[in-house]
Structure prediction request, 354 residues.
Amino acid sequence: MRSSLLRVAGAILVLAFLGRASAFGIDTVNGGTGDVSGALGTVLTIDGSGFGGTTGTAKPKVFLDFDGKLYACKVTAFSDTQITAEIKKGQLGSHLLRVRPKGSTEDFTYLSVVLQAPLIDELLDESGLNLIDEASPGLPFTITGDFFGAKKPKIKIGGKKAKVLEWTMNQILLEMPKKLANGLWTIELLTKIGVDADEQITMIGSPLKLGKVGVTITLGSGAGAQTIKIPYSGGAGGAGLLIFGGSTTGDPIRQLQVTIPFDIDTGTAGAVINSAGNLAMLVSYNEIEKPFLQGKAASWIIAGGQAGATAYINAVSGGQVGGTVVAELPLLNNSTGHAVDDPLRFEASFIYEP
Prediction:
């Protein structure tokens, strides 16, 4: 009889233990049960039970799992029911959170922790109180946003490195670069896992010129993209016209001319010019590829009134005008065997000095 009672009691204890074990795991992360967004340096508060191993006092391990690649988090505090851990590494995107109690061969898991790219929200003055859209050389100003990360970020404005003075996960104090000409320039904020390059600021009061006069053209895109540089060799073809013409020699041979209508006297940074409706705008391109196409020529041309090219005037400084052109040109001469509707895409950055 006693043996039966012991067996029954033992079964009850086992069932009780199993019932408790099945409740072990992660309940919430940072107070919620949905996706958690963060950056490198974000601190996770993980609530649940069974984190302390068999003794309740053993330090667990915490990982972010990105498609099977594990990134260890730094556990800064723990108990059997709560862990505080800092994200040290990871990749852009969603991660499976894993908690591994000491001595365990299985992990508690939670979907998901999403590492985000930095996001700029506002540009403010040095005090952080007033919105701005322009700055002078060396002027401190503030960027607010989110997911900036715990480590010092890298910031470029107009391709020039900006000095970061102070930073937090959602605010950065920096200086406008000193060696940058007047114009509307892109702010590029880079962290270890992402970039935000959607915001712009206007430089004012700079005595610097934009740079060397000429045009740089990138033909195509991706792995097949090719770049050619042409010094300025044209002249004003009329009031407010910028003309670039030139050629490169070698194999293959390329020639290109870009004519952009622009009022130099009254133009301001940020002007946008579309080929559609602009009778003066002309973009043409001719190539002779040897020996690949045995000297056959192909020509692309777009004249005013046709859609396909856009010029952005982003800077006027030191007697120079600078900007970019993006174009997809319809093929007019099909002697190379290209499809008739095969467009030529190119991007160009230019600096013009009247």
